[in-house]
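Limitations
The structure tokens in this dataset are predictions for the assembled complex, not deposited experimental models. Users should treat interface geometry with appropriate caution, especially where small molecules or nucleic acid strands are included. An illustrative entry is reproduced here so readers can see what is and is not provided.
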Amino acid sequence: MYMKKSKTRRWCRSMEIIMLALITLFFVQCKKEVSGNQPNGFDPSKPIVVDSIYPKEGGVGTNLILYGQNFGNDLSRTKVTIGGKAAKVVGVRGNSIYCVIPEKAYDGDIQISILDDEGNPLAEGTSKEIFSYVRKWLVSTFLGKYYEVSSDFEEKEGPFNDCGAFKGILWFSFDPLNHDHLYFTADANSCRMIDFEKEYVNYFRTGFSRTSIISWDNDGDMIASDNHSSDTKYGNYIFSRSSGFTQKEAIPVYARGVNGTMIHPNGELYYSRYRAGDVRRYDFQTGEDKLAFANPYSAVAVYMVMHPSGDYAYLIEYEKHFIMRTDYDPVKKIFKTPYTIAGAAATAGYKDGVGTSALLNHPVQGVFVKNPAYEGNGADQYDFYFCDRDNHAVRILNPQGRVSTYAGRGNNGTSGYANGDLRTEARFNAPQAIAYDEERKCFYIGDAGNWIIRKIAQEE
Amino acid sequence: MIKKFLLLLSIVLLGVCSGLLAQEEMTVTGVITDMNKVPIEGVSVSVLDAPGTGTLSDKEGRYSIKILPFHTLVFTFVGYEKQKIMLKDQKVLDVTLEDAKASVLDQVVVTATGEQKKISVTGAITTVDVEQLKANPSTSMADALAGNVPGIQAMQTSGRPGSVSEFWVRSISTFGASNSALVLIDGFERDLNEINVEDVASFTVLKDASATAIYGSKGANGVLLITTKKGKGGKVNINGKVEGFYSELTKLPDFADGYTYASLANEAKEARNEEPLFSKDELEILRLGLDPDLFPNVDWMDVLLRNGAKSQRSLLNVSGGGNTARYYISGSYQDQQGMYKVDDALKEYNTNTNFKKYTYRLSVDMDITKSTLLTAGISGSLRKQNDPGVGSNSIWTALMGYNPITSPMMYSDGKIPSDGDDNGDRFNPWVQGTMTGYNESWQNNIQTTLNLRQRLDFITKGLTFIGRFGYDTYNSNYILRKKHPELWKASRYRNTNGELVFQRVVEEQKMEQSSGSEGDKREFLEWQLNYDRTIGVHNFGAVAKYSQSGKVFTQNIGDDLKNGIAQRNQGLAGRVNYNYKSRYFIDFNFGYTGSENFHKDYRFGFFPAISGAWNIGEEPWLKNASWIDMFKIRYSYGRTGNDNLGDVRFPYLYTIEQNVGGYNFADFTSDNTWSGIHYSAVASPNVSWEIATKQDLGIDYSFFNDKFNGAVDYFYERRTGIYMARNYLPGIVGLESVPSANVGEVLAKGFDGNFSFKQTLGKVELTIRGNITYSKNKIIEKDEENSIYWYKLEEGHRVNQARGLISLGLFKDYDDIRNSPRQTFSDDVMPGDIKYKDVNGDGIIDDNDRVAIGATTKPNLTYGFGVSASWKGFDVNVHFQGVGKSTYFIEGSTVYMFSTGDGWGNILNEMANGNRWILGVNEDPNADYPRLTYGANANNNRASTFWLRDGSYMRLKTLDMGYSLPKSLINKAHLNNARIFFIGTNLLTFTGFKLWDPELGSTNGKVYPLSKTFSLGLSVTL
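Predicted assembly:
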């Protein structure tokens, strides 16, 4: 009996010891996890080593992963500089760091610092490998505020850094005589004038309920169009430069549903009519108004962009998802019946390709931009960049009729709001307006769905 | 009267005897008590082989009898074992009578017309062993029926606390509105789920027409009869039981981690010549866990679900009474907790799903006169349920939809993430489970029953009148308090500065309240006359019954007058039976019942059934074979009906509506429009109930003193007149709406049976038992669109037959595709896509090649078997349950990997690591999963044998172990019985289906799984 008891007791004791050991172990374990080397996983007695980096080259915004040792675990105490610029560190895990290449990190040398409580470096390490920095064309946000909560939307005049958001940007137009003034129309929303000199955005009031387009005559006066639905109202008005574009005078011809206007270097005004489905020619000298040609479809918003030479113009058939070309007859001084140049009529889609094999989805404004690569080719030297609204992209139509995608739809996506590399990152949301700034060598994109103006430019 | 007469007789006789044998006789006295030491009055005491020498015990259990030495005294009393004691010369003999062990011949069965001896039953009736149902930890008895009761097939399709099983008697034999059985508790139609199993005295399942014809147009889908416990006279009997549960989910879907998910997504993109979804650097970031915002690795199941939940139940019942009145009172409480974790910061309310059930029951039996028994009963229940605001279905949709990198639990700046809105379905699971408020719902029920039983022996011997009245009120309410925080979604990419770009996907909603209720009241009235008489070898019985019932909705009935009209039923029923020497039985019964839902010409129906039995065991030429206790063959043939049309009220009435528009009888600008009227629903005046014509052939047996016993039944049922819409009437008929008619026909047949074997090995008492139910049905006629291909019709196939294409494996290469019939579902079929069989041989694969494949989701075979053993105080009971002949398709965003194309849908580990067709790596045409696609794949993602899974399983349903404390110990504590027990349920599951719990029958796994439960309890009898 006694023997038995002592056995049990011994067994109990050994259990006790085991339990004690387990508990101790538990605490040790905990301690290791909680504090360990300070700060957080960093061992000051050891050096910070960068073994390798991935990827080896890229530009601003590229994700960079650093592999090495003794990086610690504390995000707030890890600092990485690349090419002398502080890089955003997103994650750090002992043997790896994820950071984002900052702007203008041209030199590409990588330095890691672990900071103490006051933010002073405790230890530093340098990567042997140098990141090769490439200057890229990038999409950025130029003007306007992006609202994460859409109901916070504000519309106002103001300096570039506080000018609210812009709804419905439809058409950009530079003042041909003052390159610091860029106008845009916005259909039923307010038109604006962007003043690059004063860095200020003003309202531009036309007095129309829907302003579709602004163009300029050869005297430097502005022609703005009222997109109304009445057969007995004037559609196009001249805003005189002399009045500071505050006085308007109607062109005395009834015009319903004007979406596109253009003025030929010879001085005639051409305007498209939505319901009638035609393009008419108006002569300022004689006051004669006549049909230039019938559009193959009616009930289409036809936007028109003239080639700088005046030899031809592109007609962007919004609802029918394709682009036509009309050539100028220099003898009769009139544009001729158009023909399809890109996209399949009445078929929406997204596809790069030549002529009708390319697919578009609600294209809007386009702009001719001289391409230095074509110099010496003699013939046409301009590419046509246009906003493909519902494909959320800026696309290029080259002189041979090939359509390709220039910017947007980043990372296999469609719409969105993302800046950065033109094709791998950038996203637009229903871009409609586009302008090319010859002086500043950049594009402005009216990002109608994001209510802001985006900019495409090469990194300086 | 008789007593006095007997006493007088015995005195006289004793006097005679004493005169004869005066000198040798002695007088023996003593007290007769039961096991609880309570004296028994009226025990007959007699001397063996000395007819006429009897006496009875008095109120104190005392008796006194004269007997010669070395003679045997016999003590008999109803309900107790007969005892024989040989006397030498003692003068005082106290006797304790033991409770009677029921013999086969004495066993009674509760049937539609009252209690009946088992031996005389001619229909297919199963008596459920209520003890077997008690181990079930669920809140409803329905969950314990599958595998325990022959003739019942059941399926538990959700494990959420408070959800209950669906079950069918024998087979689904209709595609009409209702295939569920009629449940009668104490004679009235009441809810099975609200009764506490401990209050059940008897539970029988009536399966064939002879047992259910009495219920007329309500009996076609089988009937469950439950009677509740009543008080017994004598000492107060107190029973208590407490039980604590710990439950875990049986089987959770096992999902791949973030890195595996992303790699597979890239594989899916690349397999279809698209750019990979994640770049190399992003995969590295994910692998290293460097971006917890955009590339987290969340195990959502782990985030939201607990490892286990604790629940409990307890009950107490008290019964007792005296000679003139007896009572039974019981109360129970059950609390079942769910598996959702709760936000610890939330103190005001609980978001976890749970279920609480309170029941009470009072029943008093009063002997108003010697021949009049009045029973008054009142019972009720309160069932409370809690669920997170968005509801459990939404949560499980999100748990299956959120992949590990969809979003983190919380963004590093404190914003709460969500993939989208979709009425809450796309909120992240943690938000759904803890931040959307809660839904509190409850159901309560009060039932009153009054029962009068008057023996009318003064008219003719054996005649009894029974009157029953019931009044129930039921209501069900909910208060939903819903809210959600502001939810954000980070854009897929960081901006050039490496910062997150957010978009608010859901606006904040402050807590908002909504509520609803429904309720009904029911009234029942029944009169019944019973007649039972034995004259010599002839045994007669007859029953006549009148019943009426009404149910009316009391809340939320809207403005449609039809909703406020009570649903009434009325019926006459009767039964005549006769048996000769308990050997040949014949039984005729009928129901003549009506429902106010039908046109008056079709309102009442006559449902007769006839049955007979031959008890071979009672034949004289077998009387010598004493090992046969009972061997009975029975057969029944009859009709019953099913008047349940679902929500359709008064189909014989038409509805007239005013036309839209019309003609303006006035000048332009004035308005004097007249519009016509038209039938918006034509009347279907000939509509009536479904008719089930049932046949049943069965054998009941009991051998070797009930050591072996069991029953086997073969059934054959033809269901005609199934109510359905006539959707395919030709347009030439010119009807504006679709009328309905009783046109469908289904044939169902199958068998069910059970056996048990009892054996005592030393001190071990062993019982082995098993049961099986198998059924197969076939649609004979259904109003459906004609097809040139017979196999496209539902006719000739099972009700709810699974249909799809026949898969021939995966395409080997492009040559294989070129040389095979063209598959029309998709333009670019590639090697590794599913290849289908061209059933009709027309050279193309399309919907005309869909055929019946597999069986049905609901099982067609259910079985159960088990062993129980007891040794001294210990007892063990093991019960297995299984189903077969069940198949279902698996589909949905987790099975059709990446099919939504927007990252919705998690990926199962089984699929990630299984034998998958991979371009250039594993081009196995017999792989288990096809070539991946990112986005929809109309060729692969459709019902076919490729995705058909066998739903059969077998599981260790119950393991019940107990120890009854020794009497010597508990008697000191003034207890009668005390048992400590452990019960485990769903402990083991054997199945070929590995993705989630096979019993759920779920095609996509988006349901609350079933639980594995361990419970520990104590039951005490005072």
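Some entries come with short summary sentences. For this one: Residues 49-133 of chain A form a domain with the Immunoglobulin-like fold (CATH 2.60.40.10).
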